[in-house]
Amino acid sequence: MKRYKTLEELQLELIDFLEEHGEFRGTIHEFMKTLDVKQEVIIPLLNSLKASGDINYEVNGEEIIIRPASFATVPPVLTPQQEEEINKKLAEGYKIVASSLLGGVQSRTLRNLINKRILIFFRNGSKIEGRLKGFDRFVLRVNSYMGKMLVYKHSITTILYKS
Fold first, then answer.
1. Which BP terms does GO give this entry (predicted)?
2. CATH number, domain containing residue 130
3. Which end of the chain is more exposed for a tag (fewer CB within 10 A), N or C?
């Protein structure tokens, strides 16, 4: 009996495909064969990834174009103190989740960091440390010693975590 893939498995598979190939162009049937899914799964899959800000897609009849979402890039604004602290944390074993220096898909990594401690550096030079509780396309929900807060992603330069 064939095992059916979960929506999350399909999301990760599509993100991996887009990271490797850049985009998908073809018919819906070709897309179904690429991910080995039924047609009724395609639109919920694409809508969930579009809502999370990971992809953009267009459907014209049978033709479909799927691309990673393009993020407006803002030049990095790290203070020398932030650069020094980030390099120190990286030497201690922390890893970068996201940075204005990096592009690409963040959602997969952020999903894995739910309920884990992260260190967030902001464009204005400040930082917070706390536990990631959730996120969407625009904000992170973080619990820190200052309490519960929503952090707008556009104000972040770098997010670090320790594995």
1. regulation of DNA-templated transcription
2. 2.30.30.100
3. N
